Amino acid sequence: MSLAIDLHGQVALVTGSRRGLGKAIAQRLAEAGAEIVINDILPGQEEAEATARELAALGHRAIAICGDVSKADSAGELIEQAWTAMGKIDILVNNAGITRDNLLIRMSDDEWQSVININLNGTFYCTRAVAKRMMKARYGRIINIASVIGLMGNAGQANYAASKAGIIGLTKANAKELAARNITVNAIAPGFIVSAMTDKLPDEVKAKYIEAIPLGRLGTAEDVANAVLFYTSPFSAYTTGHVLNVDGGMVM
């Protein structure tokens, strides 16, 4: 087996991928040769299409399909459109997610439910919609983006922690159900990753985060994208139901 990861002939759908971490994941898969379906909600259609054009310039087909994964019908339609357009979906990366931080006693019903709907329900809806098709094809790679917050909790993020912990449980249950059809289901739990959100943090807050990370730096979107690439490759063919922390050693 070549040590290079070659995804030529495979199709990957990455939810919430018009920018940020999702875009980095989609780009890494495209660089390995995969055809890509970019997804985001409808207000981001123009940016999603621009991302698809950018990835298509790497030499492989890339399209944008907008849809709200937090709604069952919309998630099902997303999978249907993607499968029809590309002929199949070999790889599903459930990346779409939001935060609505607040202290528990101040957290509104909407702040709670919106995070659960997108992060956890969206992962469930997309996985359920693609599972029957992957089972018939007897192949699939499903990668769910969780978080170390789902493992350790965090003050002011009860909704986010619950959604990401739920994704970890969902990953393990789905891995057991789908393994017999050669479908692996794994999760990645990123730690503190450089992003638009962390860019806005005061230097002293960043320094405090870094103190808790044995490798002494924040992670990058590329660090997470590399972990996704591993899960799509033959090197992880015997790995399922696993949660890979990409956190610089913060949670051991």
Brief description of this entry?
47% of the residues lie in helices and 15% in strands. It has 252 residues and is an alpha/beta fold. Strand 4, helix 4 and strand 5 (140-145) form a beta-alpha-beta unit.
What does this structure look like?
This protein is of the alpha/beta class and 252 residues long. It has a single domain (11-240), classed as NAD(P)-binding Rossmann-like Domain (Rossmann fold, 3-Layer(aba) Sandwich). The protein is built from 9 helices and 7 strands; from the N terminus they run E-H-E-H-E-H-E-H-E-H-H-E-H-H-H-E. The chain has helices at residues 20-31, 45-56, 72-86, 109-137, 149-152, 158-178, 196-199, 203-211, 221-232, and strands at 11-14, 35-40, 62-66, 91-94, 140-145, 183-190, 243-246. The protein has a 7-stranded parallel sheet, sandwiched between helices. Helix 1 links the parallel strand 1 (11-14) and strand 2 (35-40). Helix 3 (72-86) packs parallel to helix 4 (109-137). The longest helix is centred in the middle third of the chain and has 29 residues, at 109-137. The protein is globular, with a radius of gyration of 17 Å. The two termini are 32 Å apart.
Which structural traits does this protein have?
single chain, 252 residues, alpha/beta, Rossmann fold, 15% strand
Q: Give the overall shape, derived from the CA principal axes.
A: globular
Secondary structure class reads alpha/beta
CATH names the topology as Rossmann fold
CATH homologous superfamily annotation: NAD(P)-binding Rossmann-like Domain
The description of the largest β-sheet is: 7 strands, parallel
The percent range for helix content is: 40-55%
Number of helices: 9
Examine the secondary-structure arrangement and name the CATH architecture: 3-Layer(aba) Sandwich
